[in-house]
Amino acid sequence: MSNEPILSVIEFNLAISAAILLVLLLRQATRRVLGAHAAYALWLLVPAAGLATLVPGRVVDAAELAVDISGGRFAAAGSAEPASWFAWAVQSAPWVWAGGAAAMLAWHALWQVRFIADLKRGQAGPAVVGFFRPRVVVPADFRARYTLPERALVRQHERVHLARHDSRINTLAVLLQCGCWFNPLLHLGAHAMRIDQEMSCDAAVVGRRPRARRHYAEALLKTQLAASPLPVGCYWPGGTQHPLSERIVMLNQAYPSMLKRLTAAVLVFGLAAVGGIGSWWAQPASAAPDPQQEQFGDFTGATFDAKAPVLITGPISRVDARDGGYLVHVTDTRSGKAWIVSGTSAGGFDVDDMRSKVGTVVKIRGYQTANRACNPACIASGRDITVIAPQ
Predict the structure, then answer these.
(1) Among the listed residues 250, 241, 206, the one whose alpha carbon sits nearest the alpha carbon of residue 32
(2) What are the boundaries of each domain within the chain?
(3) Coil/strand/helix, residue 54
(4) pTM, whole model, 2 decimals?
(5) For residue 66, what pLDDT is reported?
(6) Top-level CATH class of 291-390?
(7) In degrees rounded to 5, what are phi and psi of residue 369?
């Protein structure tokens, strides 16, 4: 099994983890200076950084990725296997991931079922529930618990959630948590995002009805805390101490001016752009296709004949990283034939850490392909190499 999917998952999680750490560092200061909306909008950095890793990376000239093979040894193509424990880990990784994702999905589904059960008993809400058709739900004692102005404010708070599609955003965050269940920073970030989401809704309601701050604060005092999380919906995160004092302090803040809102927009989109570009740039570059290699096809599936040994002596003209190994371009000084010889990092050196020595004269022993393909270059697998001298 190829380890490229595993590397892609690692790159994705490193990118979103870096973005989450940045948001966690900035969110409180941003809320104080630019308002709760800006703090909530900062979470755009996380999907921007993650999605950037899914975009194909940079393509550079193969010479920039060339590797140094002096002093190393080739291994016959396909003859060396990775360490048994590593091979086992690579083969087991999809099953371990699937098991963890299924367990996390079942855990969230259980909390969703519990919330719906509480809702049917009239003991849950106010909240927004659902993904395809989100709706506002309230507890059985909604009219008795809240005054008429407070009920209007609570409904307006939930309508803000509906207008911004927060329930769908939270569901996508839950699915991401299931897929990246092994990333503790993601779970911490999802929890903090929901807090910022609720406080942003508070700010939206008070911004529209600034004279209703007292009624809104009284509604907050009467609202019961979530006894359990609501994965598919909008509700105060379960298991979290209600930061009532912080929310009331936020209610007393003036609605951000136009200048602050513009500053927040520039900050958020600027950080998202920088984070996305940085995540994309951090991906390993890939070599541009080699027209000469494309003429005779890929090494994949090539059969090398142990009864056709070759001895090639000549200068290295190029070394390309390819399929976990490398391709060495050499012109034999005796016959004048051009050769492309494959080797693997199992030969005693890591090709990713080396530079090519173009012009170095080497002696390569290996085996030619069974079909003796030599158009436009002869193909062989490398067995060992001896560096003679620079050309």
Answers:
(1) 250
(2) 4-58+83-281, 291-390
(3) coil
(4) 0.68
(5) 46
(6) mainly beta
(7) -65, 155
